[in-house]
Design a protein that fits this description.
The protein has three helices and 51 strands. By secondary structure, the chain is mainly β. Bound molecules: 2-acetamido-2-deoxy-beta-D-glucopyranose (3 copies).
């Protein structure tokens, strides 16, 4: 075919050009660069911790925002702090008691906070009369260096020990979670791992006496890719040192103790499919002794009730989050254990906001939870971010989360194209000149490295079959009068994920035109009519291709090891079809996707489930793939590095040619709180064995 010949000659020209290029240029560009990626909805969270009295009728006036309105505060715990620990915590604090408030003790809180690019656990004491009179103490020292980069979660205080989840230790095993429970003695900072190596533990809860800690854990069975309510088991061990670990409940999560023998937890009912709260009564001489235990269902069918919270000795009520069939919002309610009735709390004051992960004060007087703070409670009107800076484990590479998906850098690195459903956008990297360049549903973006102002994308439905019409388009973004786009594919099949060769003349993409999604190369201006060449061939899916800056390689994701299984590995192939090899695989059945080359072409950034899952997904808003984290690897398969740590879905990374100063970049957009609750909580079991699906709804600001 004539077009193929044209293409072959283009290819050889290209290769000659790049073989002749002085490599010294590439060496200098290695030094500093930036990686940006997407976390679905996260920049809309703006979580703060709030509290309501447990006994009064809830009202807007008796809801208190406890945390300080700085980026993200969640998963709170009301601690019992001894006077001596209190004076230790406040040792360096100027503010101990505001004048004239001696009678009213402060409200004390321990919580997870993400600010300044890393995750930490803070202690706050605030005064009711003036909540701006605040004492704030970071409890964990965030050290310089890569070992400090981790996710922290679900803290509680036991005596002078902080018990929490951290992901700072590499398991060394693909598809294995790094989440483990640690205990840090606050006076000394001495930290002990309580979870055995090789096991992941989530959602720790310390018993009222402090002797026992309960966790949700996969232990021996391992994570198999679950992303909805997890079928973890509940284990109990000694808080002191993690020993005497025993399984107490098969299939349960989010444990919470009333006394040392009584645990509440959630699971999906096998009879009627409602997610419900259960109670386990453990042997009276302690959970670690042998003896029979009884399990009772606590909340009735007819609604989802989960993430139970208890307080020591309180046998009258618990707090739960609910999803009711007549509401699209997650709310906090109390459940009366004597009358077996719910009483609503948060819906009465902010019906159209999601409220998550309740907790109760030790005296049972207050219920805490987190929600998006909304406009009403914003400290800083410009908190919405375009780029959120994260602490990077790689010293010369700055790391950002972008408010959009499928980002890509312009050749000079000064502009970013991205997708924000629906449509394709371009913005300067300082946040200015954000503009829509294509109005319809599109995914993936790629710039022409040579011809300025040409962005490629694919338009049509995502995750569609081979025969669905999806087309590659090129968009001229600098046309002053009217931005124009051009369809480069014309066969009506699923054509997506364009990536342009370094000479700007060719586009590699995936196409479903033969009934399987394989890779093709076409002319970057004329599209498939200007020359089309098939690069890979087989009854499987090759997709998400990216052309290396030196022109020698195309990286892509493929399920060829087990077609149709949902498992993807990364491969490399030369543009002339030789040299195929597997670059990285995340265990059997793992998912590794969205490769993007470094500017020097020596490494690849990608997203993967290599680090397993880091928290129970039900404790977060919706994520399709909550295991997604960002990694880099060298082209020879060495030096795998984990860049991100969180319980959300990180994906679609792009590696840009310049170092962006590691500070947050504000967004010109004001939307906040517009994230969705777990889609699978919209499945409401009905009378038969089926489900009724509610439409996911976006919450309203501060509503
Ligand atoms: C976080 O950054 C802000 C401004 O960038 C700075 O004022 C503050 O001191 C930093 N906080 C910590 C704990 O590093
Ligand atoms: C949903 O149903 C419950 C119980 O029937 C009722 O109390 C509540 O007001 C309803 N909520 C809404 C939002 O209609
Ligand atoms: C294919 O391309 C690679 C580099 O891109 C080159 O090393 C190799 O010699 C080429 N093979 C053929 C058969 O042209």
């Amino acid at each position: 075919m004539k077009s193929t010949t044209v293409l072959t000659s283009l290819l050889s020209l290209l290769l000659t050009l790049f073989c002749a290029t002085d490599t010294a240029d590439h060496e200098t560009s290695t030094a500093s660069s930036s990686i940006i990626f997407t976390t679905l909805g996260k920049l809309d969270y703006a979580f703060d911790i709030f509290t309501l009295p447990a006994s009064d009728t809830p009202s807007v006036t008796n809801e208190i925002q406890i945390t300080d309105g700085t980026y993200l505060n969640f998963n709170g715990h009301f601690p019992s702090v001894s006077p001596s620990l209190l004076s230790f915590l406040l040792r360096d604090q100027a503010l101990i008691q505001p004048p004239g408030l001696h009678e009213s003790p402060p409200l004390q809180l321990i919580y997870v906070t993400e600010r300044n690019g890393s995750s930490n656990i803070y202690y706050d004491a605030v005064y009711f009369i003036d909540v701006s009179a605040r004492v704030q103490v970071p409890l964990l020292e965030i050290k310089q260096g890569k070992s400090a980069i981790s996710m922290k979660d679900k803290p509680s205080l036991s005596g002078e020990y902080l018990i929490y989840v951290s992901t700072h230790e590499d398991t060394g095993k693909p598809r294995t979670s790094w989440a483990a429970v640690y205990s840090t003695e606050l006076r000394t900072g001495l930290t002990r791992r309580l979870t055995p190596y090789g096991i992941a533990d989530f959602s720790p809860a310390v018993s009222p006496s402090g002797v026992y800690t309960a966790v949700a854990s996969y232990a021996e069975k391992g994570w198999d890719g679950e992303v909805e309510i997890l079928t973890t088991d509940i284990y109990v061990f000694l808080t002191r040192d993690g020993t005497q670990r025993v399984k107490v409940v098969e299939n349960g999560g989010w444990p919470s103790w009333v006394d040392d023998f009584t645990l509440f937890f959630h699971r999906r009912s096998e009879e009627d499919n409602w997610i419900s709260v259960y109670k386990a009564i453990l042997p009276q001489n302690g959970p670690i002794s042998t003896g029979s235990m009884t399990i009772q269902r606590v909340t009735p069918p007819g609604l989802h009730a989960f993430t139970p919270a208890t307080s020591p000795g309180n046998k009258k009520f618990i707090a739960v989050a609910t999803r009711r069939p007549n509401s699209s919002y997650r709310h906090i309610e109390l459940f009366d254990l004597v009358k077996n009735e719910f009483s609503e709390l948060t819906r009465l004051i902010s019906p159209k906001t999601h409220h998550l992960n309740p907790f109760i004060s030790p005296d049972s007087n207050r219920v805490g939870y987190h929600k998006c703070r909304g406009d009403r409670n914003r400290k800083d009107k410009n908190t919405h971010l375009l780029l959120e800076n994260l602490r990077s484990p790689l010293p010369d590479i700055s790391l950002f989360r972008i408010d959009g998906s499928f980002p890509s850098f312009s050749p000079k690195g000064d502009q970013i194209a991205f997708v924000d459903f629906p449509g394709v956008y371009v913005v300067n990297r300082d946040g200015s000149n954000r503009r829509q360049i294509y109005p319809e549903t599109a995914f993936s973006t790629s710039w022409n490295p040579v011809h300025e102002g040409v962005v490629y994308s694919s338009t049509g439905p995502t995750f569609a079959s081979e025969s669905t019409e999806v087309d590659i388009i090129s968009i001229h973004v600098d046309d002053v009068d009217q931005i124009s786009s051009k369809k480069l594919t014309t066969n009506g099949k699923n054509n997506a994920f364009p990536s342009v060769s370094p000479d700007g003349k060719l586009v590699v993409f995936r196409s479903g035109r033969t009934g399987y999604k394989n890779l093709y190369i076409m002319d970057a201006f004329e599209g498939e009519k200007g020359g089309l060449h098939r690069l890979t061939e087989g009854p499987w899916t090759d997709t998400m291709c990216n052309w290396s800056p030196d022109g020698n390689w195309i990286a892509f994701a493929s399920d060829r090891d087990d077609p149709g299984s949902g498992s993807f590995e990364l491969y490399l192939i030369h543009p002339n079809g030789t040299g195929l090899r597997k670059l990285v695989q995340s265990g059997l059945g793992g998912r590794t996707n969205h490769p993007s080359f470094s500017p020097d072409g020596k490494s690849i950034v990608f997203t993967s489930d290599y680090g397993g899952i880091s928290a129970e997904p039900i404790s977060n808003p919706h994520h399709y793939q909550p295991y997604g984290e960002i990694f880099t690897i060298k082209l020879d398969g060495s030096d795998l590095k984990r860049l991100t740590h969180n319980s959300f879905e990180d994906g679609t990374p792009a590696w840009g040619p310049t170092y962006i100063r590691p500070v947050d970049v504000a967004s010109p957009k004001n939307e906040e709180c517009a994230f969705e609750d777990c889609h699978w909580l919209n499945k409401m079991p009905n009378q038969g064995l089926g489900f009724t699906f509610l439409e996911p709804t976006k919450p309203q600001c501060g509503g």
